[in-house]
Amino acid sequence: MSLYCGIACRKKSFWCYRLLSTYVTKTRYLFELKEDDDACKTAQQTGAFYLFHSLAPLLQKSEQRYQAPQYSLLELERLLAKFGQDTQRIEDSVLIGCSKQHEAWFALDLGLNSSSSLNASLQKAEMEIELKGSFTDLRKALFQLNTKDASLLTTALLRWHDAHQFCSRSGQPTKKNVAGSKRVCPSSKIIYYPQMAPVVITLVSDGTRCLLARQSSFPKGMYSALAGFCDIGESLEEAVRREVAEEVGLELERLKYSASQHWSFPNSSLMIACHASVKPGQTEIQVNLKELEAAGWFSHDEVATALRRNNPYTQQQNGTFWLPPKLAIAHQLIKEWVEKPSCSTLPA
Ligand SMILES: NC(=O)c1ccc[n+]([C@@H]2O[C@H](COP(=O)([O-])OP(=O)(O)OC[C@H]3O[C@@H](n4cnc5c(N)ncnc54)[C@H](O)[C@@H]3O)[C@@H](O)[C@H]2O)c1
Ligand SMILES: [Mg+2]
After folding, report:
1. Ligand 1: does its nearest atom lie under 6 Å from the Cβ of 259?
2. Which ligand ends up closest to the CA of 266?
3. Where does the Nudix hydrolase domain lie (predicted)?
């Protein structure tokens, strides 16, 4: 393994290596796998593969808990052989992380039409029987897994490769590197990197209440914070102010960054979450019905109660509103405000 400890000391020595923390060696190892196709191929030999079918991750259920099983390269080759597939399909896998011991983790979709193999997608039902699990809709899967497994199962990279198989300049097929961190057009030499769209999400407060809204496409009864894609040329602050003005007709007073999250739906977004406040007396909402179905101010008690009983699968019948599930950054933002309502009015 060729690891070095930094710009000041590029020696490949045990002494140098020992100076680096586990986290740093892990990130350097992943960097190496993204840059070096041979190193990544070698890593596949001892690596672990997570399986997907048309972007739905394979989950197995044991004792009321769901887990995403891992397969070795050998197991994967045997599986493909059993279904009459050539092992070239493994070239479609993408690097998604590694363990502290540098076991590399890959994601492979058996349902998408393969770019490296002539064979089309594998039969889902037959695979599920063979693998003793089920390919589960990603949204559902994310809410059934623990946070660590859920973050591994992001399908954004698989989806991006599936949708970027041709060069937009030459029209020729592009080729992914082994790790899947880029695609190159052999004809135009253009390098394509995975893209994501910045999205702002804002919980607006008037000091005692917070503003929640819903789109008609949301599950029945669910309310969330205001969200919107950033326009080209905008700063995050400008995007937050514009989205709030556009969607509910309010002008913001203070704005405070909270946290961020990668979000796989509908494609690949970087959600940037903020708390914001409006001027006292300037709280009258004018809902933009082209964007939202409804919006309103909710008291601290109402929101705290909704957080306590939050379960999307049981809340839809009795007419009460419910909030996005724990894994969504909207939930974290709302929880933060419930725990500390002054967070939106404190200086940034
Ligand atoms: N993780 C969370 O907690 C959370 C919570 C709420 C919303 N979200 C996500 O935030 C995203 C944006 O929210 P929104 O729908 O209110 O956005 P929005 O208010 O900007 O409205 C969506 C519209 O913006 C336009 N648009 C501009 N740039 C776009 C792009 N790059 N991709 C797609 N559409 C684009 C389209 O016309 C689209 O219909 C959604 O995809 C949603 O999944 C995540
Ligand atoms: Mg919006």
Report:
1. no
2. 1
3. 194-321
Instruction: Give burial (CB, 10 Å; 0-12/13-18/19+) of 101.
Output: exposed
In this prediction, the residues of the chain whose per-residue pLDDT falls under 70 are: 1-18, 114-122, 310-319, 346-348
User: Which of 143, 155, 199, 246 gets mutated to test ligand 1 (max ligand atoms within 8 A of its CB)?
Assistant: 199
ipTM of this complex:
0.96
Q: For the segment 153-166, what is each residue's pLDDT rounded down to a tens digit?
A: 778 899 999 999 99
Q: Would you state the structure tokens that stand for residue 327, as one six-digit string?
A: 């894994």
Nearest to 303 by CA among 282, 276, 278, 331: 331
Ligand 1, atom 20: closest residue by C-alpha: 228
Consecutive H or E run containing 235: none
The pLDDT score that the predictor gives to residue 115 is 62
| Contact present, 136 and 159 (Cβ < 8 Å) | no
The CA-based dihedral angle spanning residues 13, 15, 16, 19, taken in that order and rounded to the nearest 10 degrees:
150
pLDDT for the residue 25: 95
Residue 329 Cβ inside 6 Å of ligand 1? The answer reads yes
Ligand 1 atom 5: the closest Cα is on which residue?
Answer: 330
